[in-house]
Design a protein that fits this description.
Homeodomain-like_sf (chains A, B, C, D); Arc Repressor Mutant, subunit A; mainly alpha; DNA-binding; elongated; homotetramer; 2 domains; Tetracycline Repressor, domain 2; 12 helices; Tet_transcr_reg_TetR-rel_C_sf (chains A, B, C, D); DNA-binding (chains A, B, C, D); transcription (chains A, B, C, D)
Chain lengths: ~210, ~210, ~210, ~210
DNA sequence: TATGAATGAGAGTTCATTCAT
DNA sequence: AATGAATGAACTCTCATTCAT
């Protein structure tokens, strides 16, 4: 991650003194996220990103290795957030079916709260370089496996029906979640929580014993 | 559709006589489908398409207005196929829950049979020009509405549970279906029919009264 | 001239029978003239010409050797017309200053009557191939020399002032004439005859002894 | 004007130190002027321009928005020069007929001194984009109006004959001037000043009261 | 820490022309 | 007399990235 190497240097003094130029990497990531979501990764010239962020190309290449690297940072941020949430929820001592329902609802709310990230995620993965793509997939798989473990725990405990493949259920459910970006409108009639409840309800109902 | 204007003319004789050069537009579409699915629309140069199809750029632009047009044709083909299938299934006189289950399973089988189309569909829509994007969305919406009508018919008839928004169910289910392209492997352990049964089962179970 | 070789063949019968397809070369020339004047030679694709003429590319290349040839025909037509007019006027037995004035006025009226030709003439000459360009220039020079001869005749006869180079006068006057295309508007307030009188008047006045 | 944004920055040091790479935009404009005059705008590939200027395409597009922009800059330069000259001459306190004669002669000398610009001007105007064409025409019109004002001043003062439309005279005269590029040869027998005197003489004579 | 001029490869598209039919 | 599929070369322009400063 080029970010870590560079972003943590910098003169704190100057940042405090001149908030205009402060947080350059953060502003670049924000601009990139917005643009990648709106236009797609390949349709977004580096020029546009730096314009939106109000910096120059030189600055971008100072903080990030490449355009790819920028995308990679975005993925890393999303994955970190979702993993943290899942871990937190899974670690509570509520009954498994409650933890599963909470996790299912949370991933919907989180995805809607970061809809740009969601759009990028499912559209632009294959535009990452081979190696970084592997990293992201691996992290993603770990996330899915953690989710699947919850289902299997419920199946073993008899609170969720057997006879349905947990791995398929995970792919089934996250397909729905990833597609939120294609149809959900922030200015539409549905609150994020409403969608979350419905989605979680559909999942749990389909798993009733 | 540029294709229709040109591809249907031409001398059948010659095509029969020299299958090597025959079906130029079809070969272009096939090559484009494969490449768009593998590499993505923006990552696929026109040069590669014509190389794979064994023709020249001039030939491509003789049959298609633009690279965009090629993508549009692919969409049109998928939509036509899925719409036909849905209409056929919906029109039978089986009980509504059987028709819904059949439709749900069919769209999975069809998507897997045309996995390249599926991958392109959900990844590259936003790379179509504004106008064509509208066309495709409209056609897609009609398809979804037809599907939703089946659910609502079941709800009204009391064979599917009330209290769940049919439109959300449609988005939920087709999210799962569209994402098949990201995880399904043709050389994997799961037959298309197995996935189809599971998916249809999850849908129907979640709608049990 | 490719035209002569081909256009004079053809079945008179068919032309009489089907005026729709008759006069194909003429319609091509008309379309080309209009388009070359509006858009410029290089900006006018052959495709547009044949569309406007309602024929196919094959037909065009049947009658004309090339796009260049089409332009050449247009030049030939203009030159022929103007030369004929000049010869006719110069050959009358009116006093030389009357003949000069008449010729000067006529070339304005003719240029305005064929404004498209005029526009093409002064804009697109250099887009002709080397050889054809020479031909046109030679013909043009002959025309200018005939005009100059009138001036010199007047100077020798004492009805036009000496001490002004006749060749420069010719270039001076035809500069003005060729530029009609850039400012004259057919729907403007000035009748062609008005302009012609003014132009001829300016010329004759500047040559008063 | 894209030029202004970029060309004035840059390190003067470096330019002084390495004149080989200095003045890239100027060298591009020079090459473009020469080529547009010789071959015409549409016949001149960008490739040729950058070859002649000894830079890469990227450099061209760094300084200019488009090939059109390059042409526009050339126009702007010509117009600026001619307008300045006219203003200077018109502002002297010589009698109006002297000022008019001087202006008429000057525009000939200037046109011949910048014959390439002249050729481009009257041939390629219509190859500019709609909007820029309007700009140039407006500027041109202002120039013509300034010139016309001189004539009208002379007419009102009684030193030039009435009964001839000043606007037509302007179009008449500038037609001649613009056409210098089609026949004047720098290696020919006529000095620029000779032509200028003749042209001015023809104009003034045609306006004698 | 940051600049922005410059690169060089490649993008999508257009075009006049040919030729088998 | 006429078709229109196909060519192949050339076109304008864009882009991520580098590097001297």
């Amino acid at each position: 991650m080029a970010l870590e190497n560079a972003a943590d240097r910098g003169t704190a003094d100057r940042r405090a003194a001149d908030p205009e130029v402060a947080q350059v990497p953060r502003r670049l990531l924000e601009a990139a996220t917005r643009l990648f979501a709106q236009e797609g990764f390949d349709r977004t010239p580096v020029r546009r990103i730096v314009e939106e962020a109000g910096v120059t190309k030189g600055a971008l290449y100072h903080y990030f290795d490449s355009k790819d690297d920028l995308l990679h940072e975005i993925y890393a941020r999303v994955l970190r957030l979702q993993t943290e949430n899942l871990e937190r929820i899974a670690a509570t001592d509520a009954p498994v079916e409650q933890r599963l329902r909470a996790a299912a609802a949370d991933v919907v709310v989180t995805s809607i709260a970061n809809l740009d990230d969601s759009k990028i995620f499912f559209r632009s993965m294959h535009q990452l370089g081979e190696e970084k793509q592997k990293e992201v997939r691996a992290e993603r798989r770990r996330y899915h496996e953690r989710f699947r473990a919850l289902i299997e725990e419920g199946q073993r405990g008899g609170v969720l029906r057997d006879g349905v493949r947990a791995d398929l259920v995970v792919d089934f459910y996250f397909g729905s979640v990833h597609h939120l970006g294609t149809w959900y409108r922030e200015d539409g009639p549905l609150a994020a929580e409403t969608v979350a409840e419905h989605f979680a309800d559909l999942l749990m109902t389909s798993l009733r014993p």
